[in-house]
């Protein structure tokens, strides 16, 4: 069956000192063996975190990567090839902050998704609707379109080596969480959309929920049949809280 995953998205937080402290806290956690645990530090700290977590069963990923797989003339970007060399295994693609604040379009995200996979970096594709879209009854349409963008470009089998994170934009960093049933409904629709193309891919892909997940609400969310873990923002900056969320996924 699907292995649960709990991933911490540190966003643009941290200094050398705070990253050292958080990494130390993570090293000391007792983590459930059945759960895949990952953290996504700012690119600047990836080496520091990989060194600090040496020997610990925590995967390190990047929050972003370039539209082309190899190093080259692309100022300010980091290539999937470089991330892999550093020891990264995963990369977030299409987080709503990058879609909305940086203006990344589905077309750009498709290129990033493919570039990452070309180097064996597993994309965690983030999709989700805004509050306005939810209130207009467009949640499944929006999420379906974001997913279709990848399926149409690369085929559904692209999700055989990718993870999907459903993150309602209105729940990110707001303290508002989708109810377990609201999240489950969208997760079931995502899996259904994949299953219509390929039942095996749909059954195997890990679908994470993100948006104000904390130790206090994690177990209930992770208890839903199509929720395979979480993408955790704010609560991942505290090692003990993050550890508690990982344990919730292990139960
Ligand atoms: P949050 O962020 O847990 O702080 O709401 C989740 C995310 O943006 O990945």
Give structural notes.
The structure is a single chain. With 251 residues, the protein is α/β, with parallel strands linked by helices. It has one domain: TIM Barrel. The protein has eleven helices and eight strands. The chain has helices at residues 16-27, 46-52, 80-86, 96-102, 106-118, 131-135, 139-154, 180-195, 199-204, 215-222, 239-250; strands spanning 5-9, 36-40, 58-62, 90-93, 122-127, 163-166, 207-210, 229-232. It has an eight-stranded parallel barrel, surrounded by six helices. The radius of gyration is 17 Å and the shape is globular. The model has no long low-confidence stretch (mean pLDDT 97). Bound molecules: 2-phosphoglycolic acid (PGA). Residues 9, 167, 172-173, 210-213, 231-235 line the site of 2-phosphoglycolic acid.
Q: Top keywords for this entry?
A:
11 helices, alpha/beta, eight-stranded parallel beta barrel, TIM Barrel, binds 2-phosphoglycolic acid, 43% helix, 251 residues
Report a brief summary of the structure.
It is built from 11 helices and 8 strands. The chain is of the alpha/beta class.
SS-derived structural category:
alpha/beta
Any idea how many domains?
1
CATH architecture: Alpha-Beta Barrel
Q: Provide the β-strand percentage band.
A: 5-15%
Topology, number of strands = 8
Q: What characteristic shape results from the CA principal axes?
A: globular
Q: Could you tell me how far the N terminus lies from the C terminus, measured between alpha carbons in angstroms?
A: 15 Å
Q: Outline the low-pLDDT stretches.
A: none
CATH topology tier name: TIM Barrel
Order of strands, main sheet, comes to 1-2-3-4-5-6-7-8
SSE pattern, N- to C-terminal: EHEHEHEHHEHHEHHEHEH
Bound small-molecule species: 2-phosphoglycolic acid
Name given to the CATH homologous superfamily: Aldolase class I
At the first level of CATH, the class is Alpha Beta
Gyration radius (Cα, Å) is 17 Å
Mean pLDDT: 97
Main β-sheet, in a few words?
8 strands, parallel, barrel
- Helix tally? 11
Helix content: 40-55%
